[in-house]
Amino acid sequence: MRVVVVGGGIGGLALGSGLRRAGVEVSVFERDTDVRATGGYHITLDGPAQEALSGLVAPEIVERMLASGSALRLRDPDAFWDRRGRVLGYGPELRDDPSLDIDRITLRALLAEAVGDDLHLGKVATGVGYAGDGAPVVWFDDGTSVTGDLVVGADGAHSLVARFLAGGPTNAPAGIVGFSGRTSVNDLSAGERARLGTRSGLVVGPHGAALYLGFLDPVGNAVLDRPELRSPVTTGPTFIWGAMFPDSAVTGALRKLRGSALRAALVARFRELGWRPEVLEVIEAADAESVAAFRFNAASSRAGELAPWPAGRITALGDAVHATPPTAGMGAGAAIRDAADLVERLGSVPLPPAVEGFEAAMRERGAAVLTAAMGPVRWILFTDTVAGAALTVAAAPVLAAAARWRGRR
Ligand SMILES: Cc1cc2nc3c(=O)[nH]c(=O)nc-3n(C[C@H](O)[C@H](O)[C@H](O)COP(=O)(O)OP(=O)(O)OC[C@H]3O[C@@H](n4cnc5c(N)ncnc54)[C@H](O)[C@@H]3O)c2cc1C
């Protein structure tokens, strides 16, 4: 059997590696010319995603991932703050949480290594369909084409392959625009370092303004303490933050800015919405080059609406099918689990039923991940309603007082 994979992001590379290990002939075609010259911050891999990965890549690659990953169990519980910097509550203890955060570039580079010379870079797919003999075929912008027994679209949220199968887009804008950046903890004032601690957190204010802070330290909090195996992009305690606003003319104007101009405009926008300066220091201290905008796209959270096509010899996985906003940190993990499931089925079930079973399981998995990710999105959008804004403002002092009282006990 020969499998053609379109897209060498996280899901496509995980699939390529798994098929190669299983002895299946596979070729992964990716439009980027360098897997490291790509955007992205950190990816969270929970226990099931790590378990899936350990079946897809060789043990030495798993070890290098663990040596480059930041362990959640070494972090303090997540915090919820208000826009004045008051603590409203804490999340659960993380000491038994097996999840890790890893730089997207590091994860992608390690997966690319696992795929080896079955990865073909600089190949832009421009069309997909069936040849006269019924074999699936992919066409590229350089005039070449390739056929296989199975074509898998792992080409992300704007997937060409899934659009061919579904007859249209498989997701839509979720109503929120995100702006991310990277801030070294060493660039924060002593006061702010003490206030934030070694924890991730979320601030949600009225009018749909929210700020996520993700703490990672792949060196100090390494999952596996093997410095000789380490290859993270992040080399010290760092906050990867995501500012979120409802999609509007204001965010449209922000999206046109870059670097320090965007960073300053984000701070100004939060200040207009009543946020205290100390809460915004993490944005002000960010590496200007790291600040970038991205739009949240989401597929349906109803399983029956995902992969709305009959099973055949062309399929898709990951964001191509269940594009997931980053609010639950589960999109990449779901793509990896899709890949592991497809590899397993292709090894034990003949082709048409293998794809049918794979797509049925992926619908359930995708819907579960989307349900988790859309909770925070809906909450943030609710604060942009008159009732939601009033409730957010009224609840903050009550929750802050309750948190102080619990702290005193
Ligand atoms: C640049 C980038 C940065 C990201 N940063 C983060 C992040 O910081 N945190 C986070 O949680 N998630 C991030 N994500 C999303 C996360 O990586 C995905 O949600 C998740 O990995 C799902 O994996 P996937 O393989 O389905 O899609 P992706 O990882 O998006 O991979 C899709 C791949 O297909 C390729 N492709 C698309 N169209 C074609 C074509 N026509 N021909 C050939 N190749 C094509 C793309 O170049 C891409 O490499 C990012 C995604 C991208 C593309």
From TrEMBL:
Gene3D superfamilies: FAD/NAD(P)-binding domain (3.50.50.60)
Key words of the record: FAD, Flavoprotein, Membrane, Monooxygenase, Oxidoreductase, Transmembrane, Transmembrane helix
Keyword match Oxidoreductase: yes
Source organism, top-level taxon: Bacteria
Transmembrane segments: 379-403
Keyword DNA repair on entry: no
Residue span(s) of domain FAD-binding: 291-349
UniProt-listed InterPro entries: FAD-bd, FAD/NAD-bd_sf
Family annotation (Pfam families): FAD_binding_3 (PF01494), NAD_binding_8 (PF13450)
PANTHER family for the chain: FAD-BINDING DOMAIN-CONTAINING PROTEIN (PTHR47178:SF6), MONOOXYGENASE, FAD-BINDING (PTHR47178)
Protein name: FAD-dependent oxidoreductase
